[in-house]
Write a structure and sequence with these properties.
It contains 13 helices and five strands. It has 412 residues and is of the alpha+beta class. The chain folds into three domains: 183 residues, no CATH class; 71 residues, Single alpha-helices involved in coiled-coils or other helix-helix interfaces, CATH 1.20.5; 119 residues, Heat Shock Protein 90. A five-stranded mixed sheet has the order 1-2-3-5-4, with helices on one face. A hairpin with a 6-residue loop joins strand 4 and strand 5. The radius of gyration is 33 Å and the shape is elongated. 26% of the residues are buried. The C terminus is likely disordered. Pfam families: HisKA_3 (PF07730). This is histidine kinase. It catalyses: ATP + protein L-histidine = ADP + protein N-phospho-L-histidine.
């Protein structure tokens, strides 16, 4: 049942932390009991409105502890906001599975959960108490020597028991909490469908905007130069017999326009998928980008392979946008990029020592990054207190391609 063992002293610490929460548990127990006792008068239903939201927050704290101990997230059902009066809000809660999950968790926390936490903390505490008592009796000659030896022997027997089984009680508690608070599969599916619908709409909008940008760049750049090239060639053809020198100048201008048009087309292509990204991978492309910036940028990167091309492209352009914001708005003297791969995810972190105060709700750059990553179920977290530093952490689920079958991402 249990695949990962936690140190026994850690389990004892969590158990002691739960014991310190007895006071808020007793507080909630009083209110729940009053609600049940006054339910026949109708007042108890209204009392639920008072204790249910704090109980959800308290359950969230315990779920965070359980998730930290188990090494995975333990979600907590959310109560619907109370917007149309206490009575209707409570009646709506009664019709939701999440409310009864919270109530069932509370009953467990007050009974079996409390016992399991006490057992987790009691083993090491018992060993310490037995040893202290044995030494105290031996030092004070208050009891026969065999009593001290017996207490010491019991303590020594309990030490390996605690060491090998000290985390079992806490793991039973946290696994039970995770099972009780497990999200409703139907609600989870509905949320997933809603997220995918929103992500698809944002992807379509982003793709349309990208196509408009490419069209605008081609129209304003390469197309204008090619039109000028055609006019120059036509004029040169007209002047070829009458004024060869003027025709030669026009042909030279046409040649220059050809080079400029090719440069514009290459710029558009780089904006779609940079050649350095295809040749050297994400790490190499970010390192090359960092060398071209006017401030020093440290790149710390390690990946087990290359991500799929769409994920790699989205990640690269997200870093490009972040570093562009650093140069334009942060006033930073230095920046850093960390690229890692924890648990089948691609993690990108871009930070700077600038003035801080960045807000994803203002402007379109950070919102565009979130939309770009959202198409791949990615997330973006922004930390930018006033005075800095600003740190943007982005994560995208990723299945790694074999480095043996893809171009190398190392720098040359």
């Amino acid at each position: 049942m249990f695949s990962t063992r936690r140190p026994p002293w850690l389990a004892a610490g969590y158990g002691l932390g739960h014991l310190f929460m007895v006071l808020p548990l007793a507080f909630f127990l009083v209110f729940v009991s009053l609600s049940a006792g006054l339910a026949v008068l109708g007042i108890g239903v209204l009392l639920v409105r008072l204790w249910a939201p704090p109980l959800a927050s308290f359950a969230g704290l315990n779920a965070s502890m359980a998730g930290s101990f188990l090494g995975r997230e333990v979600p907590v059902p959310a109560l619907a906001p109370a917007r149309d009066g206490a009575w209707r809000s409570v009646i709506r809660w009664f019709g939701k599975r999440g409310f009864w999950q919270l109530f069932l968790w509370f009953l467990f926390a007050c009974s079996g959960g409390l016992v399991l936490s006490a057992l987790s903390a009691a083993l090491p505490a018992g060993v310490i108490a037995l040893l202290a008592t044995a030494f105290g009796l031996a030092a004070g000659d208050a009891a026969p020597t065999w009593v001290s030896l017996l207490l010491t022997g019991i303590a020594l027997i309990l030490v390996p028991v605690w060491w090998f089984f000290g985390d079992v009680f806490m793991r039973i508690r946290t696994e039970t909490e995770a099972a009780i608070l497990r999200p409703d599969p139907n609600e989870e599916l509905q949320r997933r469908v809603a997220d995918l619908t929103a992500s698809r709409a944002e992807s379509v909008d982003a793709s349309a905007a990208e196509l408009r940008r490419i069209e605008r760049d081609l129209h304003d750049g390469a197309q204008a130069r090619l039109v000028s090239l055609g006019m120059s060639l036509g004029m040169a053809a007209d002047l070829l017999d009458r004024d060869p020198a003027a025709a030669r100048r026009l042909l030279q201008e046409a040649r220059d326009s050809t080079g400029a048009a090719l440069g514009d087309i290459r710029a558009v292509v780089r904006g779609i998928h940079p050649p350095v990204l295809a040749d050297r991978g994400l790490i190499g492309a970010v390192q090359a980008l960092a060398l071209d910036l006017p401030i020093p940028v440290t790149v710390d990167a390690a990946l087990p392979g290359r991500p799929p091309a769409p994920v790699e492209s989205a990640a690269y352009f997200a870093v490009v946008e972040c570093l562009a914001n650093v140069v334009k708005h942060s006033g930073a003297r230095s920046a850093w990029v960390v690229i890692a791969a924890p648990e089948r995810r691609l993690r990108l972190q871009v930070g700077d020592d600038g003035r801080g105060g960045a807000d994803a709700r203002t402007g379109t750059g950070l919102a565009g990054i979130a939309r770009r990553l959202g198409a791949f179920d990615g997330t973006m977290d922004l930390s930018s207190p006033a005075g800095g530093p600003t740190v943007i952490t982005m994560e995208v689920p990723c299945e790694w391609l074999s480095p043996k079958t893809t171009p190398s991402s190392a720098t040359g």
